[in-house]
Design a protein that fits this description.
heterodimer, A: about 400 residues, 2 domains, two-stranded antiparallel ribbon, B: about 500 residues, alpha/beta, Rossmann fold, cell membrane (chain B), ATP-binding (chain B)
Chain lengths: ~400, ~500
Amino acid sequence: MNELMTVLKKNVREYGMYIALAAIIAVFTILSHGVFISSRNIANLLNQTGYIAVLAVGMTLVIVIRHIDLSVGFLSGFLGAIAAISLTQWHWPVWLSILFVLGLGICAGLLTALPVAGLGIPAFVASLAGWLIYRGALMLVTAATGTIIIPNESFNALGNGYIPDLFASNSFLPGIHKTTLVLGLIATIVFIFGQIADRKRKMQYKFEVLSTGLFVAKLVFMAIILGFISWILAGYNGMSWTVVIMLAVVLVYDFITRRTVIGRHIYAVGGNPEAAELSGISVRNITFTVFGSMGFLAALSGILFAARLKSATPQAGTLFEMDAIAAAYIGGVSASGGIGSISGSLIGALVYMSLMNGMNLLGTDISLQYVIRGLVLLLAVIFDVITRKRKL
Amino acid sequence: MSDNILEMRHITKTFPGVRALSDVNFAVRRGEIHCLVGENGAGKSTLMKVLSGLYPHSDFEGEIIFNGKKKEFNGIHDSEEAGIGIIYQELALVPDMTVYENIMLGHEIRRGMTIDVQEMIHKAEELLRRVRLSINPSAKVKDLGIGKQQLVVIAKVLSRNVSLLILDEPTAALNEDDCDNLLNILRILKTQGVTSIMISHKLKEVLSIAETITVLRDGQTICTLDRQKDEVTEQILIKHMVGRSIENIYPPRTSTHAEEAVLEVKDWSAYDAKLGRKVLNNVNFHVCKGEIVGLSGLVGSGRTELARSLFGNPDGYIVSGDMVFKGKKQRFTHPRHAIRSGLAYATEDRKRNGLILIKSIQENISLANLQGVSKNGVINEELDKQNALNFVNSLSIKTPSISQLVMNLSGGNQQKVSVAKWLFVGPEMLIFDEPTRGIDVGAKYEIYTIMNDLVAKGMSILMISSELPEILGMSDRIYVVANGTITGELDAKSATQEAVMRLATQY
């Protein structure tokens, strides 16, 4: 028990987010008499989180290298409209329009990086220009038609569809999505073995690790959480394609940031750009890479959002960039650079979207919703700064 | 009992897990210049932070008696009010503001709603006279040399009517002229009734100015030496500081270098377009395999510019001339090209542009050579950790684990991490800019030993240093830089400090 308290105190920043998320879920569940935690709502919540979480992942890296990208909201809306146009007016196949839009996204990101990396223009200004330009572009391409309805079922499945149940059966656990359960089980097993291997390695190099008792408790706790989530999802339609894509993005980016050379370089540039440059890292190339990835993720977010609405609207993407920035900060990214994790920004996005979802369920007035979202963001950042100070 | 302006009694200050000060007693006589010496981490700065109120009185045990009265400071404001002024290592000036604005910052003189500029300039002039600085109070601080900036800081502190002035390593970044000047100012202030406490690593300077010297080691007062009663020499001070006597400050070198040059630079010039002037002018020099070449010169002479222009030119100077490295003509356009070819550069300011302070030892050590611990762009954690661990052991970096953040290490250990980072690159030549700046005597000796080991293995070192004894003690040959060009080459065996200084001030 003593160890638990010291561990909690030491890692209050990391665990704080999980605790906050749990608290928000608990409060909304009670206030909504259980509707919040229902399978249907959780599925809905995760689908809503998808397009913001994807942006927040990219934004985290942008903030890690001490920049910001305001253009991604309308870029996402604009690229969603391009996807819709290529499907309905040019009659392109789905795969081609998706690849095309993702490619455009990368180009747009690199374009934003050009004045930033090349001339040292603040990213705030460069991306504000992008914000205006993409907003105009979105209005322009939707001017003739207004909202573009997308009739393509397979495209719309990205935002609304669910993975098929390979083990469908009417006799065993009817109404439960078995494939989702199996995936949950696999994820749990992979997680547990990964943790055990990681702990062994840490002990080998004399890193501080949890005592065996606490470590087992942590594993059991996480296993229960993972199991619970898959159970809830399985209770509705199972895992949605949006969730699959979101998790894939998070896992890939988490791997890149923690285990690859380019990940180390990104964090080095964020931690001390001058030292990074003098260590042989090209700050310019890293800036291009990170903004390029941001553009790619903005395109993905645009596709997810258009698919979810089954249409492209002239307002798509409004304030997405702010939601993504808020999620990244709630997730613990540091404005002074070099600190911030992908898993953190996923949790940040979940916290932020849970608030929105929960307040919508309760019928909270929209004006009050904005105030509460602002206060939560402020609290999260204050909490972050205070816990960081204490560590030093 | 003599007249003490300050007495600190039984001061104990603990941080989580560390006892930074234990039962320290420290007394300063009115009107004296008192030096506080000790290794890094001995507790000097902590003691001064206790005194300044940065750590409120509830945070430590013991009592502070200032001007005969017991004081409980709850912040810098309280101690300033009482007449204690502190000057930290890092200059707290706003570069884009003028001298007088900086001096009066936070204490602006008002006339009605507006600022009385005339009165402020007048007051600033008066203060500048006290520190013997004849500059225009309306000049911008960023246009002043670092020595003058240091004096502006002192003027700023004096504006608060201080009777006790505390200086935390005021001369660390100054060249010898500016140092002498600063010490003179302290003597002048003494005649004006200001008592000074100075923390310094430079023992010569301590011996030239101090009337009383207090030595701290491991958070305890080791002794207080009165220059009038006790015999004090550098050797004695070092013995008290490290708790053992170091016979030689510079370890003996057994290896000899080859005649073959690893680096040859001819007619090397660099133009800085931002400053609009030539920073280097027709530089010619060479470094042999296995040789330590000292590069001496005053701050601003172009030493660091030379190193950076060779090491991939990150400042974008317009460069002309020839550089032959390992027998091949080279002109590196990014540090990574230099590194790949076997040239490394450990920067002069490890905190600003050498290390990533918020990252771990492990991540810093492999930063410049991640290819060495990765395959297809994916890092092999095992290899990375093992590699870091090897360096921690071989360079005896003192740390609980390799996951420790570099910012939590002492100056000497940070410097070793920096060395480890460059050794892992496996360079044939290392440009080592100020290898021992801001690190204590014991760690200096270790760094020197490492340097000797490296050249014995065939590496070459170009050592840039402001410390003349270090240049003379460690180098095989010495080049002296002044005003962007090399003014002379000396053999280290026959060179003297005076000879180097003469060349360094030659224009």
